[in-house]
Fold these 2 entries.
Entry 1:
Amino acid sequence: MNTILDKLKSKIPIGLYHLIKAKFFNVKFPHAVQFNITFKCNQRCVYCGIYKDNRSEMTTEQICRMIDEFVGLGTSRLSITGGEPLLRKDLPAVIHYARKQGLFVSLATNGSLVAEQIDGLKDVNSMNLTLDGPELIHDQQRGKGNFKKVIHAIELIKQKGIPVYVVSVATKNNCARIPEVLELARALEIKALIQPVFFSEQSHANNIEGYADTRYDDKAMIETLDYLVKLKEEGDPSIMLSKRYYMNVKKSIASGVKIRCLNAGSLFCTVSPDGRVAPCNLLVRDLRWLNGNEVGFRKAFMDIAEVNCGGCISSFLDIDDLYSLKPDIVWNYYKHYMKLLT
Ligand SMILES: C[S@@+](CC[C@H](N)C(=O)[O-])C[C@H]1O[C@@H](n2cnc3c(N)ncnc32)[C@H](O)[C@@H]1O
Ligand code: SF4
């Protein structure tokens, strides 16, 4: 086995090598880290409640020290999210530092501050911006005036040559209008990651009233999921998530059974602004996780025991299937993410 792995090492990216090795030997290591650099936000999207969590935030130095620890443990990918990450004035410095340490850095943003900060974002490897639909729907879910800002931001990012895609949250307002969301993405010549709205007490999705206002009718959402599955079967290049994901979500909505990840807390994890290390972003606000800024990231990560969550329908399920190396998911990932970056 070791000889095969040694041969593989010289032929594939080192991150992928570490991942395959970890799978074969059933070893735990943080291949990808999602980092919520802040929970503060300048928007009040109807389905999100993250800005209500006003915990403390690590300093730039503390973040850089933690990045060193990620790298020491073999991390390849760092996804910076929030809250709204562009509210942190040190974001360019953090991105720059992470890139210098060899990490692939992606950034999730609502787009509202991109125009004034675009020069500081030049080092990111990829960006995703939330676009929930045509102007009326986007602004209804994410605040008046924000549609124009996000479209302008996407255009600027494209001009800078940074790979970009959109994330769309399907709710009762827009689930019948997903074809329009896709049309919009196609007109912008970018891909779309579409996932249904969900509620999770321990995450950004903890706005119970907002969730009640946007929760879809099951039958309508199932029709939308069928539509997405059909487009995937036809090979539509604009939909990023896999056919398996949409079929699983449909099964989950139809039967009420939530699906659980297998690799959260063992191959990927999420760090909160104060440094707590959670297995995934849907559990990031839970105070039971150790604080890596206090005890060290390694200990906090290694200490994550088996995750006993209630399951979810978020797009993390697709990432989880990727880490399970399911061939259809690896192929979908290659087609839609890798090609975005090449
Ligand atoms: C928490 S935001 C952080 C990044 C940035 N502020 C933004 O809005 O893109 C990350 C993603 O989670 C999505 N999101 C927030 N609440 C959600 C919910 N209840 N269900 C599904 N997605 C949700 C947002 O729309 C966004 O695409
Ligand atoms: S979804 Fe993003 S932009 Fe909207 S309130 Fe939440 S963190 Fe802010």
Entry 2:
Amino acid sequence: MTTVAERQENHQLIREGVRDLCAKFPTSYWTELDEKHEYPEEFVAALTENGWLSVLIPEEYGGGGLGVWDAGVILEEIGRSGGAAATCHAQMYTMGTVLRHGSDEQKQRFLPEIAAGCLRLQAFGVTEPDAGSDTTNISTFAERDGDNYIVRGRKIFISRVQHSDFMLLLARTTPRAEVTRKTDGLSVFLVDLREAGEHIKLNRIKTMVNQVTNEVAFDDLVVPAANRIGEEGSGFRYILSGMNAERVLVASELIGSGFFCIDRAVAYANERIVFGRQIGQNQGVQFPIAKAHVDLEAARLMRDKAAIDYDQGATKGAEANMAKYLASEAAWQAANVAMNTHGGYGFASEYGIERVFREVRLALIGPVSNNLVLANIAEHTLGLPRSY
Ligand SMILES: Cc1cc2nc3c(=O)[nH]c(=O)nc-3n(C[C@H](O)[C@H](O)[C@H](O)COP(=O)(O)OP(=O)(O)OC[C@H]3O[C@@H](n4cnc5c(N)ncnc54)[C@H](O)[C@@H]3O)c2cc1C
């Protein structure tokens, strides 16, 4: 078993490798894509070729066989370079549901191709217009029909569908009114988007971030029962176990983006002269940068704790939630401070600050809103009455 110290040593190599790759994709690359609302094809291809997106897949299926902590370090470095890790992070971890809960046949069928980069599984269909954060209230229904299921319903804000071959879909297989616990009766499917034709309709939603996200309508979509992951009715549990990994990884990329903002703010505060001195000489400028730095370091410690536990099989939802909460608040603060430090120049897109400011803002709301994180911790960690 690899020790924490050995893993940290390996992280240095990971950081250097990812930094070298990211150096080929400067701020101007991301700014241009953001302006055109285009997908970072070249960047994702480079990450894939170098094996960075398949690190969480075990070696026996052709992946890197690393853990969530290591994957987090990769995403952190992408964020720190000013890159938008959120555009491709899902290719790293969506397959985790197959890995943890899929059959041997499904693992053999999907994981080697995902590891090789020839199969993209980075669309994750959970959120619905009438359910929002209340996931067990979703109504997209998969009705059993012989060897198939027929799916009908609507999802919203489903990202990267246009850049995926498969979507991991959460649907009801038993109506909520007919189950004892509302978390029962939900199932997870792998939907082949290449064969869906007219049975899946997409309506792209323009947002303030460069993430291809969509309203998705399922109209009598046929999904083979062989594409259901695990047992029928247990899907909520499978999705939850993946969400803990997702929260640690999202926290990691936010920490990276936050430090990018700090790096830029420090450089600018040292070089910009106003009233005959560096603006960074003013406590009103330097203290907010220092505070944001401190908060990011604290978030990183919680990320490390949550990631190490996750990799040791001792997943604690509270820690993953706390890591996501602290990282999103700290990254948002760092981006805001970088905007203030840059004055009017922060608004100029070529500096990359306003883009990251928009990107990190999303994390206060998704993949889970910070209110829901606090509600969960209040109930499950502190023993307060359930509020939702
Ligand atoms: C760009 C983008 C990409 C996304 N990509 C995906 C994706 O790929 N797949 C996917 O499934 N989803 C995706 N989402 C959806 C995202 O996960 C949700 O937007 C998020 O979970 C919040 O759900 P909602 O928007 O319905 O907000 P709601 O649930 O309607 O909440 C609205 C507000 O009310 C607050 N609130 C609600 N209930 C409570 C309560 N009980 N206590 C306190 N506060 C409460 C929330 O915190 C929030 O601030 C994406 C969203 C965006 C914007």
